[in-house]
Design brief:
Strand order of the largest sheet of chain B: 1-2-3-4-5
Largest interface: A-B, 23 and 23 residues
Helix content of chain A: 25-40%
Distance between the termini of chain A: 27 Å
Largest sheet of chain B: 5 strands, mixed
Mean pLDDT of chain B: 95
CATH superfamily of chain B: STAS domain
Low-confidence stretches of chain A: none
CATH class of chain B: Alpha Beta
Number of strands of chain B: 5
Structural class of chain A: alpha+beta
Number of helices of chain A: 3
Number of domains of chain B: 1
Order of helices and strands of chain B: EEHEHEHEH
Radius of gyration of chain A: 20 Å
Order of helices and strands of chain A: EHHEEHEE
Helix content of chain B: 40-55%
Largest sheet of chain A: 5 strands, antiparallel
Structural class of chain B: alpha/beta
Shape of chain B: globular
Oligomer: heterodimer
C-alpha cells in the first residue's frame, strides 16, 4: 500500500483583529505570498480575492462587525497547491451558503460566488472542544481543588487552489 | 483609498485610486449619494487607478447605479483591469455602462 501525504513546504501564520481596516494589509500580504510561491499575478489575485471575501464574512457575520476578536490566517504552500486556513472564534455557520449570484440589483450576496469562482476547493468545519482546569490551592483543608469545564469552539474555513 | 472629485460642465467625476474595499465603502457610498442627490444626473466613477475591489465595493457601485436610475440619470464607470475582471466575474458588466477611459466616458454624454 502506498500512502501519500500532502507535503507542506512553507507555512506562514498571520493574525488580525476583526476590524475592516485590517483586511487590506492582510489581503496584500496573502497576495505577496502567493506571488512568491507561484510567480503568477493571476493566481495571486484569485487567492487574494477569495481571502478578502472570506475574512469580510468573518467580520460581518461571525463577529457581527465587532472589533477586537481574533482572526488567524494560516498560509500553507504544499507540493501541488496552496491551502489557506482562516480561523475565527465567533458565531458558526450552520451551512455553507450556496455560491450563486443574487439578482443584479442586490447589494450583497456575491462573496461566496467570488470565493467559489476563484478557488478549486473550500470547506468549513466547526471544531468544538472542552477544557478541564484543575486548581490546587496551597494551605487549604483536605487538599481542596476545583474543576471547571470550559466549552468553546473555533470555525475553520479552508481554501485550496492548485498550481 | 483616495477619492478626488471634479466637474466637467454638468458632469460629476469621481476618481478613485488604490484599494476599494469594505473599509472604504461607507465613505465612498456617502460621498456618491450626496453627489447623486445634488448633481445633474450625470456621473462618471473613474476607477482606472483602483488596484483591488471586493464585493462590498461592488455593492456601493450598485447603490450608485440605482440612485442614478431613480433620478433618470446616467452613470458611466471607467475600470482598471482588476476592477473590470471582478465586474465581469459577478456579471455586473451586463448592467453597468463601462468606458475604457475618462475621456471616452465624458464624450459618451455628448453623444446622447
Amino acid at each position: 500500500m502506498i500512502i501519500t501525504n500532502k507535503q507542506t513546504i512553507n507555512v506562514v501564520t498571520l493574525k488580525i483583529t476583526s476590524a475592516v481596516n485590517c483586511v487590506s494589509p492582510l489581503g496584500e500580504a496573502i497576495k505577496a505570498l502567493c506571488l512568491y510561491a507561484t510567480g503568477s499575478e493571476c493566481y495571486a489575485l484569485d487567492v487574494h480575492r477569495a481571502v478578502v471575501e472570506a475574512v469580510n464574512n468573518v467580520i460581518l457575520h461571525a463577529y457581527s462587525n465587532q472589533d477586537g476578536h481574533d482572526i488567524i490566517v494560516e498560509w500553507n504552500q504544499e507540493k501541488d497547491s496552496l491551502r489557506i486556513d482562516i480561523t475565527d472564534y465567533g458565531l458558526s455557520m450552520q451551512t455553507l451558503p450556496d455560491p450563486v449570484l443574487p439578482e443584479f440589483d442586490a447589494e450583497s450576496g456575491r462573496g461566496w460566488w467570488i470565493i467559489n469562482s476563484c478557488l478549486d476547493e473550500y470547506y468549513y468545519k466547526v471544531v468544538e472542544y472542552s477544557q478541564t482546569n484543575k486548581f490546587y490551592k496551597p494551605n487549604s483543608d483536605n487538599g481542596y481543588s476545583e474543576e471547571f469545564m470550559v466549552k468553546s469552539h473555533s470555525n475553520v474555513l479552508t481554501l485550496i487552489k492548485h498550481f | 483609498m483616495i477619492l478626488l472629485e471634479q466637474k466637467h460642465n454638468d458632469i460629476n467625476i469621481v476618481e478613485l485610486s488604490g484599494r476599494f474595499a469594505m473599509a472604504d465603502c461607507s465613505d465612498v457610498r456617502e460621498r456618491l449619494k450626496s453627489l447623486i442627490d445634488e448633481g445633474q444626473g450625470k456621473l462618471v466613477i473613474d476607477m482606472a487607478k483602483v488596484s483591488f475591489i471586493d464585493s462590498s465595493a461592488c455593492a456601493v457601485l450598485i447603490s450608485a447605479f440605482k440612485g442614478m436610475q431613480l433620478k433618470s440619470g446616467r452613470l458611466v464607470l471607467v475600470t482598471s483591469s482588476a476592477v473590470q475582471s471582478l465586474i465581469e466575474l459577478t456579471r455586473l458588466h451586463t448592467i453597468f455602462e463601462i468606458s475604457p477611459s475618462q475621456v471616452t466616458a465624458l464624450s459618451a454624454f455628448d453623444e446622447r
